């Protein structure tokens, strides 16, 4: 499985902060926002990632993330000239996916929860072995902002709708999707919505119509932030800060995930950490290399 992280768009809901800076490069507490979705796909075990970004942001993303080799990974970058929908962003990445199953995630979504890596790996394995699509639902108080999934009394998915005026449930589909290789054919077949975008919800509906869509609800033990507004951006930063101060462990530390996955050696980790040794982040990586950070 390969990953596609959508990190383009203009971030207009975060204006004026994003007039000059891509929102995915803004700090969520002590790390760039993009670190959080990147660490998530790493936790699943994915080592090849395609970033779909604005053309003018190539230099900034490459300066921050390079080609991925420092993490034992491979990164590709694809330009999305205009925001024409999540499904279009997925199609732009197709040449780098080469018919593999794909994990699609939004660059401004942040997840946290006990056993989350286990839940995601299990879902990825199901898609790899059985095909179809696997998405996740989360209870929200403002479902009209999201794709909404409806269930019948037995828990079976009945419908899925994008930003409905009258939501049929309060379960939003979060910005993390696992698909088999058919997803690209499905994405090509959808028509632009009234917003002029290729909606990922329409792709999910095609899987639903074929009985190949699985939706798992993330319950109270999980936290999800769509950090695309000022309030949610602030909430995400406060959440990360609280957890890290309480536990002494970092959330979204890509170097730590690479090291614990065995993708980089202790020496490689130290080579990343030592130039940062005067920072808290660098000190954390050094302690990690020395075995002083708990699992």
UniProtKB/TrEMBL annotation:
Signal sequence, renumbered to the chain: none
Enzyme class: transferase
EC number, UniProt record: 2.7.7.24
Domain Nucleotidyl transferase: 2-241
Keywords linked to the UniProt accession: Magnesium, Metal-binding, Nucleotidyltransferase, Transferase
MF (Gene Ontology): glucose-1-phosphate thymidylyltransferase activity; metal ion binding
Needed co-factor(s): Mg(2+)
Catalytic activity: dTTP + alpha-D-glucose 1-phosphate + H(+) = dTDP-alpha-D-glucose + diphosphate
Role: Catalyzes the formation of dTDP-glucose, from dTTP and glucose 1-phosphate, as well as its pyrophosphorolysis.
Family: Belongs to the glucose-1-phosphate thymidylyltransferase family.
PANTHER family, sorted: GLUCOSE-1-PHOSPHATE THYMIDYLYLTRANSFERASE, GLUCOSE-1-PHOSPHATE THYMIDYLYLTRANSFERASE 1
Protein name per UniProt: Glucose-1-phosphate thymidylyltransferase
Taxonomic source organism: Thermovibrio ammonificans (strain DSM 15698 / JCM 12110 / HB-1)
Classification of source organism: Bacteria, Pseudomonadati, Aquificota, Aquificia, Desulfurobacteriales
